Amino acid sequence: MSQVVHPRKKKSYKGQFGRVTVIGGNAQYGGAAIMSASAAVYAGAGLVSVVTDAVNRSALHARLPEAMILPFDAGKLEALLIAQDVLVIGPGLGDDNAALHLLKRVFATIRPDQTVIIDGSAITLIAREHLTVPEARLIWTPHQMEWQRLSGVKLSDQNPQTNAQAAKKISGVVIVKSEATEIFGLQEAYLNPAGSPAMATGGSGDTLTGILAAFVGQFGYSDATICAAVYTHSAVADEVASTHYVALPTQVITQLPQYMALMSQK
């Protein structure tokens, strides 16, 4: 952790710490995008924007005034996306025709030097529609059922060996979320040692995407950065779980700055 998370230089400005945009949160699942964006802000991303259903505007401004907001149908969407370092797409996006249209619109805009974190509904749409993903620095964050859809490996057949073989066929880094999360990185495979059943609650995956986005935006796209982000998410949740039956994502998010400060001093 200390090799990745380090103290900030005295002469710093927000543009140095990553421009992140979260794309998701339809009218039903707005909380997913809010939690992802919140995690990105609390984990240190310099500038965070949210592309979401317009119905989420008031809730987002109330819970996270640090984030900027743009509705799904905004004409300025492409201009925003091009200027970003990291894009998160999928949290609460939905899998209807409107979501598919937006996903295709985003994919048509992505630059090869951007990092794109593909999560949730976006994984389902890609698998269902057999979409071609753009050339970019990709990070996939499927839970086990989404991994089954994406990889074709049945849930009952999933293990480190079968998952590794399937991950080799997919461009980018693959994070298969489970009670023992596996990370199939750019260099090798890793197993996350932290985490507990207390994390088994809605929004945990959305929180992870935001932490990943913030870490990559600040510390670069590498196995070390990605593993540090996954570990941080679980380690903070473990701290919450030491005194709580459930590690709620919102509780994990609020403890991120303190945990990262401690890690940066080691």
From TrEMBL:
Main EC class the enzyme belongs to: lyase
Gene3D superfamilies: 3.40.1190.20
Binding site for (6S)-NADPHX: A32, G92, H143, D206
UniProt-listed Pfam families: Carb_kinase (PF01256)
Recorded GO MF terms: ADP-dependent NAD(P)H-hydrate dehydratase activity; ATP binding; kinase activity; NAD(P)HX epimerase activity
Keywords: ATP-binding, Kinase, Lyase, NAD, NADP, Nucleotide-binding, Transferase
Source species, domain of life: Bacteria
Biological-process GO terms, alphabetical: metabolite repair; nicotinamide nucleotide metabolic process
Function: Catalyzes the dehydration of the S-form of NAD(P)HX at the expense of ADP, which is converted to AMP. Together with NAD(P)HX epimerase, which catalyzes the epimerization of the S- and R-forms, the enzyme allows the repair of both epimers of NAD(P)HX, a damaged form of NAD(P)H that is a result of enzymatic or heat-dependent hydration.
Name of this protein: ADP-dependent (S)-NAD(P)H-hydrate dehydratase
